[in-house]
Amino acid sequence: MNEQLLNRVLRQAEALCARRGARLTPQRRRVLELVCRAERPIGAYELLDQVRDGGKAAPPTVYRALDFLLEQGLIHKLETLHAFIGCTHPDHPHSSQFLICADCGKVTELEDAALLGSLHSAAAESGFSPQRPVIEVIGTCARCAHKPDRPAD
Amino acid sequence: MNEQLLNRVLRQAEALCARRGARLTPQRRRVLELVCRAERPIGAYELLDQVRDGGKAAPPTVYRALDFLLEQGLIHKLETLHAFIGCTHPDHPHSSQFLICADCGKVTELEDAALLGSLHSAAAESGFSPQRPVIEVIGTCARCAHKPDRPAD
DNA sequence: ACCAGGAATGTAACGATATAACAGCCCCAA
DNA sequence: TTGGGGCTGTTATATCGTTACATTCCTGGT
Ligand SMILES: [Zn+2]
Ligand SMILES: [Zn+2]
Ligand SMILES: [Zn+2]
Ligand SMILES: [Zn+2]
């Protein structure tokens, strides 16, 4: 996430939390910023290292911040990677899908209505009521597909 | 999985492995049977307890069997639960979807072509080549939706 | 039958991810 | 001012998964 987008996201986060009466404390804001600055999904313990930064901090510090940010929809958790990414459009609640490149590790967040529709149709046939769809697709991104070969294998 | 289906699955597993030159050893067959007998997704350490059954066994024993069974498509892993279920139709390779009831824990395996189609379309728009789609839907199953209330909350 | 050599298993230790439980702090509201 | 709820600190522990290396088993070539 570039600097400009990051600033926008942080401002949106503050506005959203204010509107909702949720407290985006410095600790939480710090974790949000770290997640968003990471070019790739980032793990909780990796975050912990950065939060410590010489000082002291324990897992609950980071996990509690992550829980808050997840509740507010400011970040997403990638179940297949046990890692987190910042949401680029937290302004509205959404159920999104993730394209995860197994080669370069980059993740693209989609919000595909047709895909969600298919999912709801399929669930409905079984009388099932979806509450939290988890859709994560491991594959190869366009950039990596164009690479002629793995350069440094 | 009922006894009849279990027996069919075990026979299919033997046939498949034989055809592929893969060795469905007693250990692996045992783990497959334990996974299939479980009414719900079962975790690796839970399996380990049952594999031990008084004797001795260590995590790699179970994880290696699980790896083999996953490779052969005889079981599936549920990423959101860190648990495993037996595949009810291992005769052909497939990418399936899972409906996970948050109330009773039951899991339904789907193989919905339309849903997969939507997924591929959505991915294609981003130039992304899917290799392993992970689709797990947390929600409420038909049975649990009909319950008037949580009986013992 | 014999003997590699690879596949499968046993065993001990460790690493990574996540939560429980309880204590102290801060801020606002009654 | 005095709770009380929300946030944070701290320690320990639970849960999930892997590494590394020794041993055993099976198989295929001779
Ligand atoms: Zn998002
Ligand atoms: Zn890539
Ligand atoms: Zn299946
Ligand atoms: Zn249910």
From TrEMBL, chains A, B:
Entry similarity comment: Belongs to the Fur family.
Compartment annotation: Cytoplasm
GO molecular function annotations of the record: DNA-binding transcription factor activity; transcription cis-regulatory region binding; zinc ion binding
UniProt cofactor(s): Zn(2+)
Principal location class: cytoplasm
Coiled-coil region list: none
GO aspect biological process, one term: negative regulation of DNA-templated transcription
Lineage, highest ranks first: Bacteria, Pseudomonadati, Pseudomonadota, Gammaproteobacteria, Chromatiales
Protein name: Ferric uptake regulation protein
Subunit structure, interactors included: Homodimer.
Pfam families registered for this protein in UniProt: FUR (PF01475)
Residues binding Zn(2+), per UniProt: 101, 104, 141, 144
One GO location term (cellular component): cytosol
Keyword Cytoplasm listed: yes
Organism, as annotated: Thiohalocapsa marina
Keywords: Cytoplasm, DNA-binding, Iron, Metal-binding, Repressor, Transcription, Transcription regulation, Zinc
Alphabetized PANTHER family for the sequence: ZINC UPTAKE REGULATION PROTEIN
Cofactor note: Binds 1 zinc ion per subunit.
